[in-house]
Design brief:
With about 500 residues, the protein is mostly helical. It has 21 helices and no strands. The longest helix has about 30 residues.
């Protein structure tokens, strides 16, 4: 067995470096995923709006965007914004399979490398028409879809269970703050050239892929300079946190899973959240420009503001829920239902009020930001419910859930595009907000009746095999001092 250094290498744990690398992957993934919602404002010619501010429309200040080159209708824009997700939902399961076969580092790196290359080719694809450009976005989505499943495998090998809560908060914050950075930078870059947005974000994905190939290692056992102390800490905690790692599982009970009401209750909650978040992510820059009349740079900056609050609130709600449960104030299931209700009812109320506040730009931005804050109450609700229902098949159930939830990224831009095509009016945009707010209410009611935290029968196994001692890491008798590392 390879001898490891007895001392810890430097003052920063290696697992923290690996986590920062994974967080960087989330950043570049969100860059190539979200920037088009801002860049497309600079790419297309503005559609004239009609009416006035009495609820039927807002007259556009300019008839045409000086930088716009393409006469794409709102319906076509909706299709182009959703094209990414056609590819994204097709490679989720493939990414997990490739990760198990070749290791997460190679799959993550290759996925983001190809995503960066296809992003760089985006401006060239526009020369051949909207559908060629859509094909390039589908390829970007398919490449990016290879990141998330290997990333979860990568994190699970490097982060011990006792640090999962902090890790989850960190990764969720990366998702929100990367959206903020993407929207602001896309708005600034679009003032110079919309092509520059593609080049900068595509290049960032390629740079990260190179860093991943250089710095990442699939597991602690493969890291050449990881100290013995940290190695034993990671592997000991992982062993204690999962005593059933080597159990032979029954075949996947597909029928039982797909007919499980608690599974569908959670899938529907995830889908409603996806509809709300993708509506805001994809459509806010266009709404800010065509209805509130912000310029392109301000449109990106203002559209990103709700995600600043989102990044700050997601960890707060998760830890508040955990604290209430640990103190015995509310039960596990009650916490899920209460925080799901805060999300569903709070976010819906904000979305319903946005059309009422059309004359007040500040109030509109405040309502949209508050809607995101309410949405993040879901982090304290049933966001990890699939682990309760069946930890043995959580990869399968989560994959099913994510596939359905990410189809919302296909649906929302096309719904908004259909409703506002040639009708950039307050009245038509009000329908977009009413739909986004409404979907969460019936899904919450469904969860109230069918949501559960109990292990499902389909998850239970037969006789367990005795773990092979040769495959287990024997923990040290003395608890590692790294256990007390608190600034993580």
């Amino acid at each position: 067995m390879e001898t490891r250094p007895d001392n810890q290498q430097g003052c920063v744990p290696v697992r923290l470096i690996m986590l920062l690398l994974a967080g960087g992957g989330t950043f570049v993934q969100m860059f190539v995923k979200t920037f088009l919602s801002v860049a497309i404002v600079a790419m297309v010619k503005s559609e004239p709006s009609s009416g006035n501010t009495n609820g039927h429309g807002v007259a556009n200040a300019t008839a045409q965007n000086a930088e716009g080159e393409f006469d794409w209708s709102s319906t076509m824009q909706g299709f182009l914004l959703s094209a990414f997700f056609y590819g994204y939902i097709t490679t989720q399961v493939l990414g997990g399979w490739l990760s198990a076969r070749f290791g997460p580092k190679v799959v993550m790196s290759c996925g983001m490398l190809s995503a960066g290359i296809f992003t760089l080719l985006g401006p060239l694809a526009t020369n051949f028409g909207a559908y060629t450009f859509a094909a390039s976005r589908i390829l970007v989505g398919a490449s990016t879809g290879l990141l998330y499943p290997p990333q979860q495998s990568f994190i699970s090998k490097w982060i011990p269970p006792e640090e999962y809560q902090k890790t989850s908060g960190f990764m969720n914050s990366c998702t929100y703050f990367s959206t903020v950075v993407a929207m602001i930078c896309a708005g600034v870059l679009s003032n110079y050239s919309w092509r520059l947005v593609f080049y900068v974000f595509g290049s960032s994905a390629i740079v990260w892929a190179g860093l991943c190939l250089w710095l990442a290692h699939d597991s602690p056992a493969q890291h050449p300079t990881l100290s013995q102390e940290e190695f034993l800490f990671i592997t000991k905690q992982a062993e204690e946190g999962d005593d059933k790692d080597h159990r032979r599982l029954n075949p996947v009970p597909w029928v039982a899973i797909l007919t499980s009401m608690p599974v569908w209750a959670q899938i529907l909650m995830q889908c409603s959240g996806g509809y709300l978040s993708y509506t805001l992510m994809s459509e806010m820059p266009s709404y800010m420009k065509n209805i509130l009349h912000f310029n392109i740079q301000n449109s990106g900056m203002i559209s990103s503001l709700p995600y600043v609050f989102g990044g700050l609130s997601c960890t707060f709600f998760g830890m508040t829920s955990q604290w209430l449960q640990s103190k015995g104030i509310i039960s596990h299931l009650a916490a899920y239902k209460i925080f799901n209700g805060i999300y569903a009812l709070g976010a819906a109320t904000c979305m319903f009020l946005v059309p009422v506040a059309e004359g007040n730009k500040t109030l509109v931005v405040m309502l949209l930001s508050t809607a995101i804050i309410f949405y993040n109450a879901y982090s304290g609700g049933s966001a990890v419910n699939m682990m309760d229902l069946g930890v043995n098949y959580v990869g399968i159930t989560t994959g099913i859930m994510q596939t359905f939830a990410n189809t919302m990224g296909i649906i929302t831009p096309q719904v908004a595009g259909f409703l506002t095509d040639g009708q950039q009016t307050v009245h038509q945009w009000a329908k977009v907000f009413y739909i986004a707010g409404s979907v969460s209410i019936p899904t919450f009611i469904f969860y109230l009746f069918f949501g559960s935290v109990d292990e499902q029968e389909w998850n239970k196994q037969g006789d367990e095999e005795t773990p092979d001692p040769a495959t287990r890491v024997i923990p040290p008798k003395k608890k590692s001092s790294i256990n007390h590392f608190a600034n993580f």
